[in-house]
């Protein structure tokens, strides 16, 4: 008498398969579809993204940037909550870690707003800060999917002093704006003029013909939270219509056929 063969696991319940190289496309897709569903359920459509160093110590010599990010996030959240909309407008979004990211989530939370953390698995220094709204805390494995979600909903970007990661995130957004790959323009403010002028010689890029002079209009500088708030408010009023916001889409310019 033959023994009964047990039913094999369904493919989508097979953990060994899901962790395999063959299933990598499924894991990538999951990091798009799962956040998409959660953002839709939470009715989050527009974000203001804060970039900056996770290593910035609020008690250290650059601690004033921590407090400035905290205050600006608080001011933006208070302003956002006053807007006449049924949607959650201009939700503060960070990379979810410490330093400037923590400051941004903290300021938004202190203003009574919801706030997003797009965390990433790293060998060191990256763990979710306690100020992220629980249902808006995300964990990513793939850097490129995390960066997609930074850009996908962003209407504005505030970039505080940071290292390689911050430079990577900043230049990617500027490249997308420069090449018109964004259907929704993003207002960009570099906070800390002295720092950014030292780290990136924007005038040299123009002088050597690496960027056009008009590319410098893709961003503005600010050194004070109140000034940054005013810049962002002015830009967002110009860039955002009064209709209900929708999800951003990648943009492919159409050229006439020869």
Structural write-up:
The chain has 258 residues and is α/β, with parallel strands linked by helices. The protein has a single domain (50-238), classed as Rossmann fold (3-Layer(aba) Sandwich). 41% of the residues lie in helices and 13% in strands. The protein has nine helices and seven strands; from the N terminus they run H-H-E-H-E-H-E-E-H-E-H-E-H-H-E-H. It has helices at residues 15-18, 24-42, 63-81, 100-110, 143-152, 164-178, 193-199, 202-207, 225-239; strands spanning 47-51, 91-94, 115-120, 137-140, 154-159, 187-191, 220-222. It has a seven-stranded parallel beta sheet with strand order 4-3-2-1-5-6-7, sandwiched between helices. Helix 3 (63-81) links the parallel strand 1 and strand 2 (91-94). 36% of the residues are buried.
Portion in beta strands = 5-15%
Shape: globular
Main sheet strand line-up: 4-3-2-1-5-6-7
CATH architecture level-2 label? 3-Layer(aba) Sandwich
Structural class: alpha/beta
Assign a percent range to the helix content: 40-55%
Distance between the termini: 73 Å
Order of helices and strands: HHEHEHEEHEHEHHEH
| Count of β-strands | 7
Mean pLDDT: 89
CATH class: Alpha Beta
What is the fold named in CATH at topology level?
Answer: Rossmann fold
Which stretches of 5+ consecutive residues score pLDDT under 50?
242-246, 253-258
Our count of helices gives: 9
The description of the largest β-sheet is:
7 strands, parallel
Rg over alpha carbons: 21 Å
Number of domains: 1
Compose a concise summary of this entry:
The chain has 258 residues and is α/β, with parallel strands linked by helices. It contains nine helices and seven strands, in the order H-H-E-H-E-H-E-E-H-E-H-E-H-H-E-H. It has one domain (50-238): Rossmann fold, CATH 3.40.50.
């Amino acid at each position: 008498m033959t023994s009964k063969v047990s039913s094999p696991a369904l493919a989508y319940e097979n953990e060994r398969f899901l962790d395999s190289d063959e299933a990598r496309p499924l894991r990538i897709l999951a990091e798009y579809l799962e956040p998409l569903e959660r953002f839709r359920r939470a009715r989050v459509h527009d974000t203001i993204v804060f970039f900056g160093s996770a290593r910035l110590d609020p008690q250290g010599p650059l601690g004033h940037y921590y407090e400035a990010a905290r205050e600006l996030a608080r001011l933006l959240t208070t302003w956002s909550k006053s807007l006449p909309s049924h949607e959650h407008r201009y939700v503060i979004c960070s990379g979810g870690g410490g330093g400037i990211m923590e400051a941004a989530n903290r300021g938004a939370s202190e203003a009574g707003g919801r706030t997003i953390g797009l965390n990433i698995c790293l060998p060191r220094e990256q763990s979710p800060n306690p100020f992220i709204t629980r249902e808006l805390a995300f964990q990513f494995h793939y850097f490129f999917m995390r960066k997609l979600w930074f850009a996908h909903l962003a209407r504005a970007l505030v970039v505080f002093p940071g290292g390689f990661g911050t430079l990577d995130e900043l230049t990617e957004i500027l490249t997308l704006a420069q090449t018109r790959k964004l259907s929704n323009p993003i207002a960009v403010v570099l906070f800390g003029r002295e720092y950014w002028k030292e780290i990136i010689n924007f005038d040299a890029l123009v002088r050597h013909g690496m960027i056009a002079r008009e590319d410098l209009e893709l961003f503005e500088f600010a050194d004070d939270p109140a000034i940054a708030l005013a810049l962002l408010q002015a830009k967002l009023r110009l860039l955002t219509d009064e209709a209900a916001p929708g999800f951003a889409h990648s943009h492919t310019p159409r050229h006439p056929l020869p």
